Amino acid sequence: MDRPRSIGAAVKRLEDPAILAGRGRYVDDLSLPGMLEVAFVRSSEAHALIRNVDTESARALPGVHAVLTLKDLGVDRRMVQANPHALLRQDITQYPLARDEVCYVGETIAMVLAESRYVAEDAAALVQVDYEPLPLVVDVREAARADAPRVHRDSPDNLAARIPWKIGDAEAAFRSAPHVFRESYVQHRGGCHSMECRGVVASYDAFSEQLTLWSSTQSPYLIRRFLAEYLERDESRIRVVAPDVGGGFGPKAAHYPEELALALAALRTGRPLKWIEDRREHFLATTQQRDQLWDVEVACDASGKVLAIRGRALHDHGAYVPYGLLLALGSVVNFPGPYAIPAIDVAIDVVFTNAVPTTPIRGAGRPYANFILERTMDCVARNLGLDRAEVRRRNLVRPEQMPYATGGKLPNGKPVMFDSGDYPAALELVLRNADFACWGERKRQAAERGRRLGFGISCYNEDTGLAPFEGATVRVFPSGKVVVTSGAGAQGQGVRTILAQIAAGQLGVKPEDVSVEIGDTARFPMGMSTVGSRTTVTAGSSAHLAAVEVRDKAMRLAAELLECSSADLELADGAVRIKGVPERKVTLGELARRLAGQVNVPSPAGFSPGLEATAYHAVERPVYANGANVAVVEVDPETGRVAVVDYYVAHDCGTLVNPPLVDGQIVGGVAHGISNVLFERMVYDRETGQPQTTNYGEYLLVSAPEMPRMHLSHMETPSPWNPLGVKGAGEGGTIPCLAAVVSAIEDALGAKVNEYPLSPERVLELAEKG
Amino acid sequence: MDKRAISLTVNGRPVTREIETRRHLADFLRHDLGLTGTHLGCEHGVCGACTVLVDGEAVRSCLMLAVQADGREVVTTEGLAAPDGTLSALQQAFRDKHGLQCGFCTPGMLTTLTAFLRENPDPSEAEVRDAISGNLCRCTGYAGIVEAALAAAKRMREQS
Fold first, then answer.
1. What one-character DSSP code corresponds to residue A537?
2. pLDDT digits over A53-95, tens only?
3. ipTM of the complex
4. CB contact under 8 A, B138 and A26
5. What's phi and psi for B54, nearest 5 deg?
6. For residue A245, which residues of chain B lie inside 8 Å, CB to CB?
7. Does A703 contact B91 at a Cβ distance shorter than 8 Å?
8. CA nearest A245 in B: which residue?
9. How confident is the model at residue A5 (pLDDT cuts 50, 70, 90)?
10. Smallest CA–CA separation between A663 and chain B, in Å?
11. Does A22 touch chain B (CB under 8 A)?
12. Parallel, antiparallel, or unpaired for β A482-486 and A514-518?
């Protein structure tokens, strides 16, 4: 099929005019009649028993409507597990409000309902919680020890799960390998920090028995399912709406106690309720990514060909398991990355700590795995005296090996298979762009002028478009208006624009003439979640399939009306017309009117009602985006300051639907990676479990002056596994970035760097060692 | 609760209200006047999303009490377009150069850069980056925003 013109066009985003004019609709912009505002009383202790919660003076404050604890909500059950997994040894979720034990600072204990947020916060401060402190542990290494304090007092130990990942026979490979090298790595990625914090509005209408929840979430359909399960109500009586979401990046895909608590309280009080998370709460209670500690061995031959990798990791999981094991799983099942490595034996221990739970953030474990793989390639190069690029060349999966089976197995038992891509070509492209051939000379010249430059390489691939589905309906109304509805959500990527482009291309209309309705469970029956770089692959493919069906239907009906063969017809400017006789036409609106029906008139024979179609593109296995990055840094040996000066990306996410939007995803992803390496560290006090970095003075994010010059190149290898040939692009900027920047810093310092984040102080320490 | 009456101009229109003295300007704009285009990202003055123009200067409305705006002229993101809704050169450049994704930091970026470009109509890229160094964006990596500011500056110079 010919690619429609709208695919690959730099269509301006349909989302932008309203947002630019200040007419975006984020959850805090919603106000309902009679609405009360909610503030949560949160644990000030990292681990304690709650002896008593005294709400009397809070309730007495004028303007306070109610102060509720778990008992007042009338429930006594832990929350639903959002992502069950067979390897989960201790499946411990939170209560919507703490029952009798709190396990991290920030855990919800009680909620105040008041006439304004100001009064609600005043009252929350008046609630007296009587704690009996319990032993605690926040350091993952300590928590993993047999004699460690228990994160949950009734647990046998702190091990939530142990996840093995094996390919081939690593033991045999290590026994016979000419070379074996060992390293240890410390990784820490920090928090979510979408610019919009979380927020929830809940409303119960007793007349229609309808519970509606507006939440700044990536997963409205999953939230609906979990609410239905917990509340024992039909999903059809629950509507969840994700309005404009001010960034998500993963943590907004999880289901939170506040969502459930607001739903329960709205049902109980009959009043609409609003809770808007403030930034301090975001540090205290929105899921994060923290420490992952790795011990890694690599077996290789003298040419740098890697024969096996063995690794053991500790994963700081935090206090609860709200979202299964996805983050830890993502850290191991993506071995061997883009490399043809015959044997892998890695395992990760998922360890409870008395801190905020961790769940995936942009990259979802893949940046951890990529860091290990890429630093291992550098380790092999360093130890064998080989060029870093050459070691990668010798190990990358080659295009003639595609589709390439890694030897691993997907959750459904099918083999892990890379669909397409030229991985070595991506590496050569980025090296050429970065002028790698002259790098040694450039570095020497800079050194003569007292400047320390470093060059880092990172290759990656990413399983995108994750199973199982997002569906889409394409519908033409008798007015001629084209509407796409889908269960896919958005978090700022421009999903509306992408779906409009895809449908418009098939229907011969302009993207701006297509309305896209998403993120609302009342609009479309089923949906999953906007995560895993999956929306364009899943919802995009479905929108395409549905639009093709609508187009065929329109052509067939028009052929009957115009009394010609559909081969003589073309679709353009919102009408089906006879080729070469454009005045003989019938508009899409007219065709839709015929199919919209009339009482006592049968539909045209052979046509289902409505000029519409619904499709669910079934994803059996992910499609793999790939690429290679180069970071160039300059380190100031006096201050330890690291400046990333140039950043090169060669990237292949298959068919580009809207190139500027893909660029935006990549540059934003790189910013996230640079921020992780140079700035972000979520610190907990080891003795007390108190979070130490709870504002943007103590916790830094990358800002505009620290961003490098960006140099992007696209390759376009369409995936054979979906009708558009698309692959996901949402996380590919972040995944390779951490390793690239750390490698460049290592190169500049001439000293081993096996960790991030890297403060200037730490850079100076490492420089002294080198 | 201590209340006080204030009179000010918001986006060219006179406004008089009696408000609690502790109410910050952002909450006043958003919830009392319904101007929800101004966003709150951190409420401690670092992220810059809540930036509005007070007497032409970029100000963090989360760090200013509404009573302090008494007698002043406030412009929010809703007030940047022409009365007929035509986007300003800067707003249009944000659209043309993909200067926004989730849009949450956007109002602060627009107000900060509006004030900056008035003072510095011909900035270098580094100056633009410095100008928004107090505005955090988690989506874009700032590239589209910087490009948009430079494109808007050029367009405004050509028009003046």
1. I
2. 999 999 999 999 999 999 999 999 999 999 999 999 999 999 9
3. 0.98
4. no
5. -115, 115
6. 102
7. no
8. B102
9. confident
10. 9
11. yes
12. parallel
